[in-house]
UniProtKB/TrEMBL annotation:
Residues 62-229 form the CP-type G domain. It comes from Lactobacillus colini. Pfam families: MMR_HSR1, YqeH-like_C. It comes from the Bacteria. Transmembrane segments: none annotated. This is Ribosome biogenesis GTPase YqeH.
Amino acid sequence: MDEQIKCIGCGSTLQSEDPKKSGYLPNSALEKALANEDSDVYCQRCFRLRHYNEIMPVEENNDDFLALLNSIGEKNALVVNVVDLFDFSNSLIPSLKRFIGGNEYVLVGNKIDLFPKNTKESKVKDWMRQESNRSGLQPEKIFLVSAAKKRNLEDLINFLAKKGKKKDIYFVGTTNVGKSTLINAIISARSELKDVITTSKFPGTTLDAIKIPISEGHYLIDTPGIMSKNQLASHLTGKELEMVAPKKPLKPATYQLKPGQTLFLAGLGRFDFLEGEASGVTVYAERNLYIHRTKLENADAFYQKHKDDLLLPPSPEDDLGPMKGQTFSPKTKSDVLFGGVGFITVPKDIVIKAYTPEGIGLGIRRALI
Ligand code: GDP
């Protein structure tokens, strides 16, 4: 190609050979731009960024991203950490602690719409506070919102508007927590912002940013989502995620179990009832997820026999490791957590063992319901 045009978003020379390289635009669009002698052409990536507020995610240990976090620590900023309430432990960013510096830090728990209607929000916040303190993070405030359903956004938006008068606001989060959905919900709630989204790069890095003016001289800045190996979303295909990620509020399903029985949550979770009185345990997961009850003594054989048919997902291609378990003996009614899949409410004074692939997303909390 003799003629060269540059993307007006990122300045890269437009090309249609390699979608992975900068400046990519499908051939048809590039030819059209050349024929029309367009002067305002965006590469595909900048186009998506501008129109859908999508920023390319980064790996956990991306040097540019660590440098970016570091630079936030040196500023007077507000750090807003968006987390997925349904996969909380995997959406916390432990390294954030080192980078916040003396900055204000708040947590926004997203996807509250998935929790059953009778969930007490104060209990959810208590649990989030305990967990984040355990990771060395001390949020000043905790918001519970649903970006998708536009619930509880007003408090957060007012808070951001107030803080944004004095400082920049950085949104950070792992991928799939709903950060872009939330940013878009905030923009659409403030109609004056609709057309003023500006995209840019963080100085000295290859990272994209979305900068939304929030007051005279201050911005709300969306940073790239961090891909964590511990998130199911990083392993499952889009279709599998559809099967696992609930779309509607979780509906309880109670199973009467006695010691020596096992429940499988497809191939993504296993729950062994080891000791205690026969009791009801309540599963909260996507309604169509395959749940199978069997005898503990047959569980290993059942898993080996059916992991590639009944117990899907995950499929062998998903590259999730073997099931690893953790034993819990709660002293109060508790929720055993299977991050990204759901939780099982158990009575006190029983002993159970919970498994997930590689043990990711396992945890326990005081029962929320
Ligand atoms: P990002 O990677 O953090 O930017 O996440 P996205 O905004 O792309 O959202 C990830 C997934 O979570 C998508 O499937 C969204 O539809 C879903 N999602 C986002 N916000 C909510 C929410 O408030 N409730 C529910 N149930 N799902 C949500």
